[in-house]
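Appendix B. Raw example, untouched.
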Amino acid sequence: MLVTQLALVSETAEITASQLNRVAAALQKQATRDFAPLWQVPATVDAFDRLKDVPVGYWPMIVRDDIGQPGAAGVHLDKNGQPFSLIQYSESWSLTASHEMLEMLADPWGNRLIAGQSPKSDQGVVEFLVEVSDPSEAPENGYTINGLLVSDFFTPRFYDPVPAPGVRYSFTGKLKAPRKILPGGYISWRNPVTDHWWQQIWFGTEEAQFRNLGKLTERTGSLRSAIDARTKTAERIATSGPQSDRFAEARTLTAAVKETTASRADVWSSQIEELRSGSATEGTWEGGEQDNE
């Protein structure tokens, strides 16, 4: 089985080497423990100091202060058709990085469509764009790994024709039925009859709403990058994350985790000093032959 190799690189002075490594470790745990068993996509996530240090064969995830053009953040394809992602820095950048990582792993080239019944009652079978983090993308639906906030994501059962008891539709379990969205999330599809793209969105309203995006007449990247640019997905997550109650809870948890890891490090350091000084021994022996000096 081929393993996807991802490289996390910071190009902002806001992120220290320690922070970069901690987020990379959390993303690695999410990819291995949570995502791979459900999607059957094994992956590694490693932190690198500079883009120049990223080995050939890795797909980079690059964190920057200023992505530039609105909608530029997200997953793109390079000139050789290989994926890379641009991540907008914010205090909750681990959430944004997790979101982009999950979508890159589920559909690296951003063009995968899956047929299913439209959420809009006057439409028939449509083609859904696979965006695993978008229906439950709001920070309040995320969860923590090593004290850091990461994104929820839907499972392959999300496209089932009907709901069934006991089925897990998203990792956290917050999505309760197929092809549904939560407040702060959205879903996108193409209606083959009209060739129009549609979305169901839930942005700051009491109920979810439908909107017609029209025909996608021209694009230079993937379907996902075109949709994300129109929806301003990455910018919305970067803005909403630091303001959310879930992020505030994660920050408190992060402080507790740091205290725990610092205490454990002190224990390790003390034990190493005991071994170096000879005050500790791994065992005592009697009655055997001595080593030849």
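End of appendix B.
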